[in-house]
Amino acid sequence: MARGPGRGRGATAGETERKIRVVKRVMLWTTLVNAFFFLVIVVLVLALFRGGA
Predict the structure, then answer these.
(1) How far is CA 22 from the centre of its chain?
(2) Which of 24, 32, 50, 51 has its CA 20 to 30 A from that of 41?
(3) d(CA 28, CA 22)
């Protein structure tokens, strides 16, 4: 029952490399999405302040 990270069936070098590539891609997409949402929130806040002030 003790399944450690990287231990399991078929943890070959190619599989690890593929996992690393997927993780890098996910991190890149997460960063892009976070930046996009941050920009959208900033624009909304600026619009609210401009409209309210």
Answers:
(1) 11
(2) 24
(3) 10
Is the pTM value of this prediction over 0.90?
no
Which single residue is written with the structure tokens 């450690």? Answer: 4
The two tokens of residue 1 are 């029952």
Take residue 9 and report the two structure tokens written for it.
């069936």
Asked if 6 and 16 touch (Cβ cutoff 8 Å), the reply is yes
Amino acid occupying residue 17: E
Convert the pLDDT of each residue in 24-39 to its tens digit.
999 999 999 999 999 9
Largest CA distance in the chain: 62
